[in-house]
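Pasting as-is:
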Amino acid sequence: MLKLGEYNTLEVVRERDQGVYLSDDDGNEVLLPNKYVPEQFLIREQLKVFLYLDHEERIVATTLEPFVTVNSFAYLKCTHTSEIGAFIDWGLEKELFVPFKEQAAKMRAGSWYLIYVYLDEKTNRLVASSKTNAFLDNSLVLLSAYDEVDLIASHPSPQGWNMIINQKYLGLVYEDEIFQKINTGDELKGFVKKIRPDGKIDLTLQRHGYRGIEPNAEQILKELKLSGGFIDLNDKSNPEDIKEVFQLSKKSFKKAIGTLYKARIITIETNGIRLLEK
């Protein structure tokens, strides 16, 4: 079956003036226009292509790589609007359509939006929606505390930043866990801190507990070496100064330099930390 909005591996079956025709295992065929045909190919060769609808609503193949595939989120630019909706640049010739009913707020040309791409079953067309929360489901969370996850920054809240987790769930990184600038659409690595009984997920951007000490210690050691072996921060320093230099909380910083001290890698002095000579 030909799968719209996805990469398909199809077989070259014949060449025609307008391009080559590709076929799936069921004999369904699709055109790969000449401008996308490789310089060298063989009949019965397998090609990986992306399928979408062209300007005449026909399924067509391309070797271009879109910025997003079906059932996925991405942060993309609105190129123009019309009386029927907005249009998004997703890296292909025909732009991605966002109907008015799928716009969380009225889209404007030149602005960027976090969107979700889905296949409209009524029209069999690929469309996008900026109402992203509608496509996240925390009713059955198949994650555990300490799991490493892929995050997309969705939107800020008074408590912190809402994050899309593994393209499936919605979670929150609290403000006191954030030690870096975050913008909508940023792709980050994070860790599950807690899964609440109601399915809400608390996240952290750093490994927590004993799992966090070693990476943070390595980060501080690297900065020490770059700074000539001394940094004027220690366990008595202002939390904001520590955050500015290391993007760590004071608690995490103290644990990390404690690890380095116990390993006899650094000394903790009254005005900072110093790398021991070896």
